[in-house]
Amino acid sequence: MHITAGAPAPFTTSPLGAAGTPPAARAAYTATWLDALAGAATREAGWPTAPFPLVYRALVLDASAGYFAIDDPSGGVAAVRACLHRAAAAVAAAGGDPSPSTAGFKTPGIVHSTVLRWARAPPLAAAAAIRAAWEAIAADWRPVTVMVRAAVVVHERRAYMHLHLDGADADAVLAVLPFE
After folding, report:
1. Mapping DSSP to helix (H, G, I), strand (E, B) and coil, where does residue 67 land?
2. Cα–Cα distance for residue pair 56/113, rounded to 1 Å
3. Is residue 40 within 8 Å of residue 83, measured between CB atoms?
4. Strand, coil or helix: 60
5. Taking the CA of residue 47 as centre, how many other CA atoms within 13 Å lie in the half-sphere pointing to its CB?
């Protein structure tokens, strides 16, 4: 499971994945943001110094996705996001942001982990069946607490990528930042 702490640009507009992006531009973008994101772990006050708990509280299905709603009782994700925002602001202030996005560094408004997403709404009959199955599973869900031991900086090469870090997607991992 993963939780998005933040992103310098939406994966849909990032030069890391844009077709036709020159390799040198992609390398510059990667180097700038990898330094900023990995640097947040060593340079930013407030970065977690120990593993922290997250509670996978409930399964939620809305119009565009199904996801785990997650509680952040220690504020660990909030702390990571604050550090990443400060690091991104430093990149922008130094004029080092090669991102085509003018929207700036983005973080989700909630702590969640997406389970499913669709590009377009399913037909009504299928949507009803999906909702019924989802609600049956959600009714049996009991909160689960997990300990977060590290932040992993990755390059999503395709939309809504779910990484297999021990296999085909191992090269997507740019850095592992342990909380210690």
Report:
1. strand
2. 9
3. yes
4. strand
5. 21
